[in-house]
UniProtKB/TrEMBL annotation:
This is 3-hydroxyisobutyrate dehydrogenase. PROSITE patterns: 3_HYDROXYISOBUT_DH. The active site is at residue 168. It comes from Erythrobacter litoralis (strain HTCC2594). SUPFAM superfamilies: 6-phosphogluconate dehydrogenase C-terminal domain-like, NAD(P)-binding Rossmann-fold domains. NCBIfam families: HIBADH.
Length: 289
């Protein structure tokens, strides 16, 4: 297929390269020349405008920083320049309301569109092992799935437009909560005289077991290899976790959902990020406790 790919940063660069590997003809655009040069080295055809990138495309994939940029890219450029039959796929993490608005505008202009945010970081983007949570009609999902499968290990339909974003922020809010809870438990166990490894051996097979403990342990040297073993470098940056928590709090307010633990987690990550730790993996929150 001929696919236009817009936003070739940390995530989009590897995703576009995987579309090329799967045999697609990828027309690429980014505001950064360095990102475009790398995409060219990976087999994409670079373009100098979104309009030209979308010419003749059967699908458009975007991987952009935030909702304002996503709205601007689609409303100002993609809608109108991509052929009417093209399926539009936004993989960025953005707010639910903007995702729904942009999808409504696209549908009104005669396109099919999905929101398809991802779980998995840069390594999963490069390795083609992302999980996509997709919001949109059955028909749009079916078309997007064929393309997303080249970039991920799982593609799950979450329901109507915006539901992919809803799944993503609810998941990441839960992740932040159980990461902080896990850190608290390890710190308290230590203060009560328990060795962290011993606490892990007990809790990982007891009712406190959770993903932050058994797959991503915040204590160095305990559990499988994780960013804590590398001084909290790499992994999922605190700044990105905070971005997702802010989106979650915004959505909770709009939906009138009670999220006392999510709100507390957001405020703890605000403090940690504000203290200059935005580049550290989010499990480094244990340093603050
Ligand atoms: P990034 O900043 O590395 O990449 C974004 C790219 O978009 C940049 O190359 C930038 O030049 C380009 N861009 C910005 N405005 C543009 C425009 N108007 N037209 C064309 N290109 C434009 O960010 P990233 O880490 O790749 O993240 C992208 C999205 O993926 C974000 O929404 C983020 O929340 C989400 N995400 C990131 C991770 C991660 O681990 N990095 C994990 C899951 C989801």
């Amino acid at each position: 297929m001929r696919i236009a790919f817009i936003g070739l940063g940390n995530m989009g660069g590897g995703m576009a390269a995987n579309l090329v590997k799967a045999g697609h003809d990828v027309q690429a655009f980014d505001l950064s020349q360095a990102a475009l040069d790398t995409a060219k080295d990976n087999g994409c055809t670079p373009f100098t405008s979104i309009k030209d990138t979308c010419e003749g495309a059967e699908a458009v994939v975007t991987m952009l920083p935030n909702g304002e940029i996503v709205r601007q890219v689609y409303v100002d450029d993609v809608i109108g320049s991509a052929p009417k039959g093209a399926v539009l796929i936004d993989c960025s993490t953005i707010d639910v309301a903007t995702a729904r608005q942009v999808e409504a505008i696209a549908v009104g202009a005669g396109y099919e569109m999905v929101d398809a945010p991802v779980s998995g970081g840069i390594a999963a983007a490069n390795g083609g092992t992302l999980t996509f949570m997709v919001g949109g009609t059955e028909s749009a999902f079916g078309r997007a799935k064929l393309i997303l499968e080249a970039m991920g290990k799982a593609v799950i339909h979450a329901g109507d437009a915006g539901n992919g974003q809803a799944a993503k922020i609810c998941n990441n809010m839960l992740l932040a909560i159980h990461m902080i809870g896990t850190c608290e438990a390890f710190r308290m166990a230590e203060k009560l005289g328990l060795d962290p490894q011993t606490f892990y051996d007990i809790s990982s097979v007891s009712s406190g077991q959770n993903w932050s403990m058994t797959s991503y342990c915040p204590v160095p040297g305990v559990g499988p290899q994780s960013p804590s073993d590398n001084d909290y470098q790499g992994g999922f940056a605190t700044a990105l976790m905070l971005k997702d928590l802010r989106l979650a709090m915004e959505a909770a307010e709009t939906a009138d959902a009670a999220t006392p633990m999510g709100a507390r987690a957001a405020s703890i990550y605000e403090d940690f990020n504000g203290a200059g730790n935005g580049g550290l993996d989010f499990s480094a929150i244990i340093k603050m406790l």
